[in-house]
Design goal:
The protein is mostly helical and 1074 residues long. Among the domains are: 175 residues, no CATH class; 215 residues, Up-down Bundle (Methane Monooxygenase Hydroxylase, Chain G, domain 1); 78 residues, Herpes Virus-1. It is built from 39 helices and five strands. The strands form two sheets. It has a three-stranded antiparallel beta sheet. It has a two-stranded parallel ribbon with strand order 1-2. The radius of gyration is 45 Å and the shape is elongated. InterPro entries: Ub_conjug_fac_E4_core, UBE4, Ubox_domain, Znf_RING/FYVE/PHD. One of its GO terms (cellular component) is nucleus. It holds the Pfam family U-box. One of its GO terms (biological process) is ubiquitin-dependent protein catabolic process. GO terms for molecular function: peptidyl-prolyl cis-trans isomerase activity; ubiquitin-ubiquitin ligase activity.
């Protein structure tokens, strides 16, 4: 029957009464925790099942049991006939109030006197706690709280001629009748939970000798909890149809504990205390937690999510609850990466994030016009909210991993399932529909970082607890498909197929889980910022392009409507991307979170260096370089992302939050970079090695008062860096000539640009200058390769940059009004100009850095740059550049706003003059300049002098030195011309086949048998390790001496010079005689 129907005067006996009695009796017996004699046909109110705090009543004292009459209806106050004839004990019926035909109006209760009878206390207290009465005329208590009248219990007492009083022996019947009277639109717990709270307050209020009062209250507490269990698990006991929305603790857990219907800690403590003896507690708990999770799965950070988190925090304080939750099938029931967030118990808690679409839209509405200050304020607000939420998540997870081994393992399994399901997050084009969200994985990463904090101490004292063999013990973290640091797939598979004995500790478990979480979580989100920037730029350009099309469709409403629709879609996508970017920056630029992440990566760095060096390395110890040629297997077979996470995290913080690094970074970062750049063969991926250079580069960016960045001072002053850094940088400078990628030609310039920046930073320390000198003398081949590549770069970028300016000059002239260009022609020209300007700017930046490096090196090592193998190339490069800057072609270098391209012709000229002066101390350089038949033009030197003097670009001393050098060039040129005339036609067998010049030291190439000058082939091999005639591999050590030919050339040259000298002498004599 429905809730509004009135109960009949004489309700019939419930048809399933017997079954109900049996179930309830069995449940109450289990909940009572005490064994008591049972009558042949026990009743719902019998003392044998109602109390464990009072002595059991023997069968001799009990009247014969009568058949209980239970009528379970849906009416607000159903007439429930409960018969349980029990001896009133020591009560004297004459001393206690009884029911009268016409009860008096309710009287205001007075405080109990000190000598109040226990029976009176019991009646008064139970009535007050459960807000029930046996007096039909008493509708409210002394505090004006509405009371529930219990007619069935009163009738039963009257039938038995028992005192009309509430007793703990009859309390179960009283609770049942009262709870059954609650409207079905409310849960029975709406009544029972406030009763529980009044019990606990009364218990706390007992002072001194309890004299039996505590027994009454404890029994009330026990029965109240039992009925709470029934209300959730068996609502039919209260005449209610099961209702999943009401028959659960979930809504009550969402209330504050202080609220009347809120679940308090003592309620949860009582639940846990009964956990083992009552099997109903576990399903009741699980139902409540699942309810919390499922409701939260539909929410975002915009909604009132905090009560759900607080409820889970409260429950996680109890180890037995945590174990029960972790063992529930729904704890890890998900079939996809997106499903983890919504369909596992903890997933919805971790899903709450500022990166949810609803949140980004709310906080960053109209992002295109949003004020920067407002953006910052919104980001800070979200950041503070997220920090609080992440602390709560960490608190919850901490309890899960500490409550029991079972809950710990289940929790680690859950985290492993997350990272293993999201491998495709690092794909080139990840599909968000198949992966967990960024916000979810960021929360996972942060919480795992928090779990690692206990072993992230400043002295790295617990790093030795991280067991690399974890990966060979059937680990939770799947790495089979991951690229390894220096091993192919087949070797890796074979290595990991061998299972190592032993058990991995918790530190190792959480360490590798956190590494994986960083890779698939925070690092993936970091890299996504670049993608967002590209997407925003594309959409912005697309919107401008569409707007430019508007005039075309002014006369066509249909086409204009289509254009408007396209614009709307592009605009919506642009706003969404911008809002999301602002939110991502708000999350990632969290200094607290990044500081914790940085500390974890420092631990990973020290651990990785220990594996590679097979030592107990800490930042206060020195690594011996180079490392052994034989690499440790444990290092080779590690996932590549171990190192990638380190450099990615450090580079991100260096770039966006450098102040976090100031207080946290140590020498281990420098050790990592130098070690693996020196022993670059330890790492297979050249781009991963390049990131080590980027790390050093970002570490030298000026920040606040540190003009040399976070790492600059350490790179300058640390002995380990002084000993190894310059060689490591030069070595990698050479290596990046060939990366194996189709973009290697252009990649090398970006990498070398960063190398130049680091070298410029450290060059103030003369130790590095001495190191360079040492390299040129003791490792000549290595040094020559470095210089040769430097010259290649300088020649290329100079040529590319300086040839772009004539094109820019012409395009700017064509676009300058007035012009006769059509709209389409103008658009095409503007696009062409933009491309040329972008290229010129990039190449000019590289040119400036390359020239800067040459200035530094030629000043320190002029002799090394004038070795026979490279001196002619050096001379040709500086002569060509001088001709471009001051020769006839210089007129085409004039462009609008040259500073826009970082192009300053006067400064560039001055720097090249300095290179001339640095190298001019070498006579071989002077001869090479004079012998440069392509670009040596005396008029260029004169024109350069005029420009230098007019603009005061060099000091007086430098100008004097320059004039002297010009004279030497002129003298050398005259001598060169004279020698060429003296030698006349050189026999072909004496000519170098490549340079077409007279050989000085001819050698034979071993395979092609070609004869070539040693300086020519040596110069060739600096760039290309192959025979230039048949492309067979070749080293300079392989060439064969040809002393016979060398002797012939020397003799022939001497003979020709002697003849020329004699001829000039004869001419002079003839002239004088004449």
């Amino acid at each position: 029957m429905d809730n509004d129907q009135q109960p009949p005067p004489a309700p019939p006996e419930a048809p399933d009464k017997e079954k109900m009695d049996q179930i309830r009796r069995r449940r109450l017996e289990k909940l009572s925790g005490a064994s008591a004699p049972k009558s042949t046909q026990p009743t719902l109110g019998s003392t044998g099942i109602s109390s464990s705090s009072t002595p059991p009543i023997s069968s001799e004292n009990a009247e014969p049991a009568v058949k209980p009459k239970i009528n379970i209806t849906k009416a607000p106050t159903p007439p429930i006939a409960l018969s349980s004839k029990v001896s009133p004990g020591t009560q004297d019926a004459a001393d206690l109030p009884t029911a009268s035909p016409r009860p008096n109006p309710p009287k205001k209760q007075t405080p109990a006197s000190v000598d109040e009878l226990l029976e009176a206390y019991e009646n008064r207290t139970l009535g007050s706690i459960f807000r029930i009465t046996l007096d039909p005329n008493q509708t409210v208590d002394s505090s004006n709280h509405k009371l529930i009248y219990l007619p069935n219990l009163r009738q039963e007492l009257e039938d038995e001629k028992s005192p009309i009083m509430l007793t703990k022996e009859r309390l179960d019947s009283a609770i049942l009748e009262a709870a059954s009277a609650i409207p079905h639109s409310k849960g029975a717990l709406d009544y029972l939970i406030p009763c529980w709270k009044r019990i606990m307050r009364t218990l706390k209020g007992i002072r001194g000798y309890a004299s039996g009062k505590d027994a009454i209250l404890k029994e009330a507490k026990r029965l109240c909890m039992s009925n709470c269990v029934f209300a959730v698990e068996m609502p039919e006991f209260f005449g209610r149809e099961p209702n999943s929305a009401l028959d659960t603790l979930t809504p009550y857990l969402l209330l504050e504990p202080e609220e009347e219907r809120g679940i308090s800690p003592d309620f949860l403590a009582e639940m846990e205390a009964r956990f083992e003896e009552d099997e109903s507690i576990k399903p009741m708990l699980r139902k409540a937690v699942i309810g919390l999770s499922q409701q939260l799965a539909t929410m975002s950070m915009n909604d009132n999510y905090k009560p759900y988190v607080h409820a889970m925090k409260a429950l996680s304080q109890f180890p037995k609850f945590v174990s029960a939750i972790a063992e529930d099938p729904l704890f890890q029931m998900a079939t996809s990466a997106p499903g983890i967030e919504k369909h596992t118990i903890l997933g919805p808690f971790f899903r709450i994030s500022p990166l949810q679409a609803e949140v980004t839209k709310e906080y960053f509405a109209a992002p295109k016009t949003m004020d920067k200050r407002k953006v910052h304020t919104s980001q800070e607000a979200l950041r503070l909210t997220l920090q609080t939420h992440q602390r709560d998540l960490l608190d919850i997870v901490n309890h899960f991993v500490r409550s029991s081994p079972e809950s710990r393992n289940k929790t680690l399994d859950w985290f492993a399932y997350i990272v293993n399901s999201n491998h495709k997050r690092r794909a080139l084009r990840p599909n968000p529909e198949e992966l967990s969200s960024d916000g979810f994985l960021m929360n996972v990463t942060v919480v795992l970082d928090g779990l690692c904090e206990p072993f992230m101490d400043a002295t790295f004292s617990k790093v030795n607890r991280i067991d690399v063999d974890y990966l060979r013990r059937n680990p939770r973290v799947e790495i089979k498909d991951e690229t390894k640091l220096n091993a192919d797939e087949s070797a890796s598979t074979e290595y990991y197929e061998t299972v190592v004995s032993g058990t991995s500790n918790f530190i190792s478990e959480v360490f590798f889980l956190t590494l994986a979480a960083h890779h698939y979580g925070s690092e993936a989100t970091n890299s996504m910022l670049k993608s967002l920037d590209r997407e925003i730029k594309y959409l912005t350009d697309k919107a401008k392009e569409l707007e430019a099309e508007r005039p075309k469709f002014a006369g066509s409403p249909f086409n204009m409507a289509r254009l408007e629709e396209q614009l709307r879609r592009v605009s919506d996508a642009l706003e969404k991307a911008m809002s999301f970017k602002f939110a991502v920056e708000g999350v990632l630029f969290d200094k607290v979170m990044q500081a914790r992440s940085l500390n974890f990566m420092r631990v990973v760095t020290v651990w990785l260096l220990r594996i590679a060096t097979q030592s107990d390395y800490t930042p206060d110890k020195t690594i011996k370089l180079p490392l052994p040629a034989q690499q440790p297997d444990a290092f080779r077979f590690l996932p590549e992302y171990v190192l990638e996470d380190i450099v990615g995290n450090f580079n991100f913080i260096f770039r966006f939050l450098p102040d976090v690094m100031i207080s946290a970074v140590g020498d281990e970062v420098i050790a990592l970079c130098i070690t693996f750049l020196t022993n670059s063969e330890y790492i297979k991926n050249p781009y991963l090695k390049a990131k080590l250079v980027s790390l050093l580069f970002h570490g030298t960016w000026p920040i606040y008062h540190r003009t040399k960045g976070v790492l600059g001072d350490s790179l300058i002053g640390t002995k380990f860096a002084n000993d190894h850094l310059l060689h490591a940088l030069m070595k990698f400078y050479i290596e990046v000539e060939s990366t194996g990628a189709h973009t290697q030609f252009y990649d090398k310039f970006n990498i070398r640009y960063e190398i130049f920046q680091v070298i410029k930073c450290i060059w103030t320390n003369t130790v590095y200058q001495d190191r360079l000198t040492q390299e040129s003398k003791t490792n000549t081949e290595f040094f020559l390769r470095f210089v040769n590549l430097l010259l290649n770069d300088a020649t290329y970028v100079l040529d590319e940059a300086l040839t772009k300016f004539p094109k820019i000059h012409d395009l700017q002239a064509e676009l300058r009004p007035p012009n006769s260009l059509t709209a389409e022609q103008r658009t095409a020209k503007e696009e062409e100009l933009a491309t040329a300007e972008g290229q010129a700017q990039s190449y000019m930046q590289l040119t400036n850095e390359t020239v800067s490096m040459m200035k530094l090196f030629t000043k320190t090592l002029s002799a090394s740059f004038t070795m026979p193998e490279i001196v002619e190339r050096v001379a040709a490069m500086v002569d060509y550049t001088l001709d471009t800057l001051v020769g006839p072609k210089s007129l085409n270098l004039k462009v609008d706003d040259p500073k826009k391209y970082q192009f300053d012709p006067k400064t560039l000229l001055s720097e090249f003059i300095e290179i001339y002066l640095n190298l001019g101390v070498s006579e071989s350089f002077v001869e090479a300049v004079a012998g440069d038949g392509r670009s040596y033009k005396p008029e260029n030197f004169e024109r350069a002098s005029r420009i230098l003097t007019r603009h005061g670009l060099r000091s007086t001393e430098d100008m004097a030195a320059w004039e002297n050098l010009k004279g030497r060039f002129k003298t050398a040129k005259e001598l060169e011309d004279q020698n060429e005339e003296d030698l006349g036609d050189i026999p072909d067998e004496y000519l170098d086949p490549i340079m077409a010049t007279l050989m000085k030291d001819p050698v034979i190439l071993p395979v092609s048998k070609q004869i070539i000058d040693r300086s020519t082939i040596r110069s060739h091999l600096l760039s290309d390790p192959h025979d230039p005639f048949n492309r067979s591999p070749l080293k300079i050590e392989d060439v064969i001496e040809n002393p016979e030919l060398k002797a012939k050339i020397v003799a022939w040259r001497a003979e020709m010079m002697q003849k020329a000298k004699a001829a000039r002498g004869d001419d002079l004599m003839d002239t004088s005689a004449g």
